[in-house]
Amino acid sequence: MTNRYDTGMKTRREVLGDAHVDRAEANKSTFDVPFQSMITEGAWGTLWSDDTISRRERSMLTLALLAATGNFEEIPMHIRASRNTGASPEDILQAFMHVAVYAGVPKANHAIKLAKQTFAELGVEV
């Protein structure tokens, strides 16, 4: 493995948590190893490991981009990760409010619904 892979795996575990990463690693197959390596090196080893902006800010950007592009499936995972990045429920709501203005109210509305469900599962009162 490369240094970027090792850095990415460390960051990935810090942000998403060991349990999530362990489940993802256990579900890898020979088919998706190249994809998983690319994500670990690129997204986690490069982007998320860069300290130009904070992980809190990255969480907010990621959640806004997921909502704006209609990629709702990963929103709960990144809501859960916000416990490790410092993005508060209020920060996340602000990110989704930006989505409403710049990408559409229906997308923001759905993202907020997912956030509320995920926070409830985590026992976070919003």
Automatic annotation (TrEMBL):
Gene3D superfamilies reported in the protein's UniProt record: AhpD-like
GO molecular function annotation: peroxiredoxin activity
Xref: Pfam families: CMD (PF02627)
InterPro entries: 4CMD/NDH-1_regulator, AhpD-like, CMD-like, Decarb_PcaC
UniProt domain Carboxymuconolactone decarboxylase-like: residue ranges: 35-116
Name used for this protein in its record: 4-carboxymuconolactone decarboxylase
